[in-house]
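User: Working on a comparison across species. This one is HTH cro/C1-type domain-containing protein from Mycolicibacterium parafortuitum. Can you predict its structure so I can line it up against the others?
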Amino acid sequence: MDEVNEGGAELSTGAGRAGVSERRRRYVGSRITHLREDCGLSLEELARRVGLLAGVMKAVESGRRGVAFECLIDIANELGVTASELVDGME
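Assistant: Here's the predicted structure for HTH cro/C1-type domain-containing protein from Mycolicibacterium parafortuitum:
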C-alpha cells in the first residue's frame, strides 16, 4: 500500500511505482505514435531514423518499453518537437 506525505503526494512503496512507470511509458508511447502519424512517418521509418529496430519502436509506442533520455531526444527531433513536449501533461 502506498502512503501519502504531508503535502498529499503518494510515497511509493514499490508496487505503486511499477504502475506509475507503466502509465508514463504508455503516455509517452502514445504521444510518439500520434506525432509520428501526424508527420506521415511509418513506425519503421522513425525507427530507422533514430537507430532502433522496428520491434523496439513498436514496444516503445505501446508502452511496454522505455527508452534512454538520449534516444527520447532523437525521437523528438525526428518528430519536430522537444523531448519536453513528448512528456508534457504526464503525471
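For your comparison, note: The chain has five helices and two strands.

User: Helpful, thanks.
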